[in-house]
């Protein structure tokens, strides 16, 4: 399911620009990356993508995947959590 960890950015609780900077650094040496998030972090993943696209026209978004995962909560119950994978690549690559 997961490709090389070096070309994947997992969105969590850091500030928006932290992820944007990380994406730009990775895209300077790689042709493409994937931004992944689940649950409440999905909105932040979309924001990171939008900042990258609006900052420059050098990047484009591929086929976005949405899904859900079944996780066990701390109280032992199973719950479904939404996930998103957003591939971003250099334009023309």
Mean pLDDT: 91
CATH architecture: 2-Layer Sandwich
H/E topology pattern: EHEHEEE
* Molecular shape: elongated
* Topology, number of strands: 5
* Biggest β-sheet description: 5 strands, mixed
Number of helical regions: 2
CATH fold field value: Translation Initiation Factor IF3
Q: How much β-strand is present in the residues? A: 35-45%
Determine and state the CATH class: Alpha Beta
Rg over CA atoms: 14 Å
Roughly how much helix do the residues carry, as a percent range? 25-40%
Distance between the termini: 23 Å
Overall tally of structural domains: 1
Describe the structure in your own words.
The chain is α+β, with helices and mostly antiparallel strands. It has a single domain, classed as Translation Initiation Factor IF3 (2-Layer Sandwich). Helix content is 30%, strand content 37%. It is built from two helices and five strands, in the order βαβαβββ. The chain has helices at 16-29, 42-55, and strands at 8-10, 32-38, 59-61, 65-72, 78-90. Strands 1, 2, 3, 4 and 5 form a five-stranded mixed beta sheet that branches. Strand 1, helix 1 (16-29) and strand 2 form a beta-alpha-beta unit. Helix 1 crosses helix 2 (42-55). The chain is elongated and about 45 Å long. The mean pLDDT is 91.
């Amino acid at each position: 399911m997961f490709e090389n960890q070096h070309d994947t950015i997992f969105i969590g609780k850091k500030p928006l620009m932290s992820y944007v900077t990380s994406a730009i650094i990775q895209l300077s040496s790689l042709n493409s990356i994937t931004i992944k998030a689940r649950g409440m972090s999905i909105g932040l993943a979309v924001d990171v993508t939008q900042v990258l696209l609006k900052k420059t026209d050098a990047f484009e978004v591929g086929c976005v995947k949405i899904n859900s995962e079944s996780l066990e909560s701390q109280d032992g119950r199973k719950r479904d959590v939404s996930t998103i994978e957003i591939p971003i690549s250099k334009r023309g690559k």
